[in-house]
Each structure stands twice: as structure tokens, then as C-alpha cells.
Amino acid sequence: GWAGEGLGAGGKNRRVCHAAARLEMGSLWEEFNRLGTEMIVTKAGRWVPQWPGGCRAEGTPSPSPSPCRRMFPTFQVKLSGLDPLADYVLLMDFIPLDDKRYRWGGGDGGRGSDLGVLSPSPPGRYAFHSSSWLAAGRAEPAAPGRVHFHPDSPAKGAQWMRQIVSFDKLKLTNNLLDDNGHIILNSMHRYQPRFHVVFVDPRRDSERFAHQNFKSFSFPETQFMAVTAYQNHRITQLKIASNPFAKGFRDGDPEP
Amino acid sequence: GWAGEGLGAGGKNRRVCHAAARLEMGSLWEEFNRLGTEMIVTKAGRWVPQWPGGCRAEGTPSPSPSPCRRMFPTFQVKLSGLDPLADYVLLMDFIPLDDKRYRWGGGDGGRGSDLGVLSPSPPGRYAFHSSSWLAAGRAEPAAPGRVHFHPDSPAKGAQWMRQIVSFDKLKLTNNLLDDNGHIILNSMHRYQPRFHVVFVDPRRDSERFAHQNFKSFSFPETQFMAVTAYQNHRITQLKIASNPFAKGFRDGDPEP
DNA sequence: CCCTTTTCACCTAGGTGGTAAGAT
DNA sequence: ATCTTACCACCTAGGTGAAAAGGG
User: Fold this and answer.
1) From the CA of B78, how many Å to the C1' of C14?
2) Which CATH architecture has domain A12-46+66-106+130-243?
3) Which of A57, A158, B22, B49 has its CA 20 to 30 A from that of A1?
């Protein structure tokens, strides 16, 4: 099985073994990570295509559940090392960082926290308002392990490398029964986003080489706690300060 | 050259020879066509990606030329007869309906009009306000013959047939030097939209069979006059009445 | 005179966290 | 007590024709 397609380092196909991904907005991710990133998860409303097609039922005031939420910061990467002429599929998944369930509490400055690294850097400085994430038992049964394909997949390596690849269509939900293909996560659990580059192998028996045809990337600064409402007020403030869609909640003069 | 891929009616590949396309919103198209459809064309502003990437130059108040315009009604088709497992590319182009240039004028009820069919159905009823399209010389040199690929291309036949295919990303411009890939048309000229289904032939020498691998569709009710501003007031009123984005200009109670 | 361009108010569509009420 | 949901005002982003200004 070693004929035809040369193998590179690590037993990977040469179409992926040189692939590299640089996380975009790295300093913003790190700023969030220092505080302990939180991502909102909600139940999904069924999408009602209002236009085009125009087939909205007349007396349908919509059940109006909250829409699913994107991630912020958005997961974006700059790719290099792909074969410009080969086809690739890009996708993401989310793996539990541990087998724990968390709760937000304390208020004693973080003593007893299992996640001291997520507390404010100068310990005690924000003591009055400080709380922290505490382990609170074993994780709930893992949600269905879904995957989000970048909607431009498949595409040539040249296309993927031309500009930043943005996963801004990815949405998070806590609805275990979600049927819209969104990423299902358990609230109050920690996750590590993973990014995968998959070479679309044109060979007939490509299944035999599946394990050689992908390369995965994990950026530790993108890990986060799934929540239904923000717990850490400093995370809230950083989201408001940095997410354009939250501009309505800014009051002071911003730093450009 | 007749081996391997069976040919169907008209010397077309069997993957496309049974393809059929039904125009959506047909009654709306016909309503416009009875009045003489007009489509706005504008010069394009260069697209400034404000987010994500955030690379907007600081003191750039944007040159603010008008954005390019979509078509309304949107060109939408329901497809059938494709091979569910084969790959297809869907695209549109626009061919001049004649070699004439037009002007809007008259005001005598349409006498002398070359396009009497586009005048109000009950002749004379709207005499006071009526004008019509008059031929006014030969067409200008044809604009660069561009093509618009449906952004989901390529995709499997099953995917294309699953739901209505909408060309709502297609934009029209009168800028002969447009470098955004928009469709370039001459104002005051008439056009016929065309729709093409192209089978992506996996054979090595597929170029040799290119003429067999596509099927084209023209719907006469979608022909239109390219204009920089609406001339026929009844077209304006029908656009306002039927385009959701023009709801701000409706005054009377609508008919649902 | 006729056609084109610019700017504008007013929409659709949807992404924010706040807030209060609901659930366990 | 803690977590979740529903609804809201306020944004971004961009698709409308009106009206005024510009150009040949």
C-alpha cells in the first residue's frame, strides 16, 4: 500500500504532511483565554426561510426561541503548505477538555478553585468581585460528537490558502436533539476546538488511506467554557469591547 | 467517441439530456414582463471587507459609490432529471435580445413604439402618463460577455434537486471595467437571461465532449431592459409592491 | 433634453448582551 | 441557589426606490 502516493513525515500523505495553520486574532484569543473564555450556547429555533420562496404561513408569529450563537472570537486560520491543485475539506469539532462539570462560585478570591489559571492575573486585586470556576462533579454524558464542515468545502488548496479561512457560520447549541446540524455542547463543560484539514483522495480505495489523509490542529488558547449566560463579568466586558455586534453596550470612549 | 458514455436525445450526454428546469415565481415574472421588465444597473463600489479581518484603513470614509444591484424578481429554478450522484456546475449568462439601443419617450400613448407589447394592456387607458420604449439606433459594442457561476457549484445532482436554486448573489453592473466578476450590461439595451446546467465530466479528455455535457434554458418571461433609473412608473410600483426590501415605499394597504 | 450618479431614509436579516421570568 | 429561557433594545450588514445633483 505504499505505492503511488508518497508518504511524508508521520506516515501522512504528502498532500497534508506539510500543511500548517496559523490562528488569526491570536492576541484577542489569548486575552480571552487569560480571563477564562466563555461561549454562549442556546437552544435553536427552527429556521423559517422567509425569503426567497416566500412560503411563510400567514398566522405564524414564530415560536421565537433564541437563535443559535456563533463563537466569539471567530475561529479563523491562515493556511499554508497545501497542494494548490489538490482538493481539501476543512472541518472543526470540539472535544471535552476533561470529565468534569463546573459551577461558577466562590467569591473568596478564588481559593479552592480548580482553575486558578483562569482567575485575574494579579491575584486578589479584584477580590471583591471575584469568583471562579469550581469543579462540581463528573461530566454529563457527552453530547453527540458533531462536526462542522467549512461551507466552502471541498475546494482546491490554492483557494484555501488565498485568504483567511473563517468559521463564522459555525453555531453552538445545548439542544441535544438539534436537527439543524449545529455543534452540540453541554453547558458548564470545557471544550477544546479542533481544526482538521482533509485531503480528498481521488483513489478508488481511498478509505484504506483515510488515516493518512488528514492533519489536525489544536490551539490551546481557543479552549472555552460553554455557558448559557456569562458568569465572569470581565469576559462580558471583553466581548462587549471587541465584538462589533455588541457595540450597543459600550459606554466609555473605546480604544481604537 | 461514442463509447463509455451513452448519449441521449440531441446528442447530449445522458447526465444532462433529461435535465429540466421550472422557473419559480413565474406569475410574478409574467406580471413584470407584461409591463416590460426593467432592471437597475449601477457602477460598483469596491467591496471593503469590514469584518472579519478588521483590516479597514482608519481614515477611509469609503468612496461610497452605489452598490451593485441584484435582479428582482430573483432568477430561481426548480431542477429535475439530473443524475443524483453526478457533479454539476450551474451558471447564468445574459445575451442581447437585439442589436438596438432604446430610449424612453413618446407620451402619445405609445404610437410609433417598437415595443408596443410592453405598453399597458388596455391601450389608451393610461394615456396621460403613458410613454414607451422606442428604438434609438444601433446597440453599443457588446459588454464583456461574463458568466455567473452559482456559488454552490460544483455540487451533486441530488443537492441541486433538493430545493429551489436561487441566483440571489448575481449582481448587475454597467461598469465596463468592473473587476468584481459582476455581470456587465449596457444600459438601455434589452437582455435575455440564460441558465446552463453543466455536467462535470470526470473523463481525462472531457474537453472533447464539452458540447455534449451541458443543457441550456431560456425563459422568455425573464427578459428585461437594463436601466440606470426606472422609466416605466408601473414597473416601479410593481417592484415596490413585491420586493420586501422596498417595503418602506409602500403606502396603501397591501394585498397579501 | 435625457441619462447617470450620489446620497438618503427606510426596510430586511440577523448577531449582541441585558433583564426578568422560569425551571430545577 | 443556581442555571436556563424568552424577549428586548441596539447594533452590523446590506438591499430598496426617491430625490437631487451631475453630465453630455
Assistant:
1) 27
2) Sandwich (2.60)
3) A158
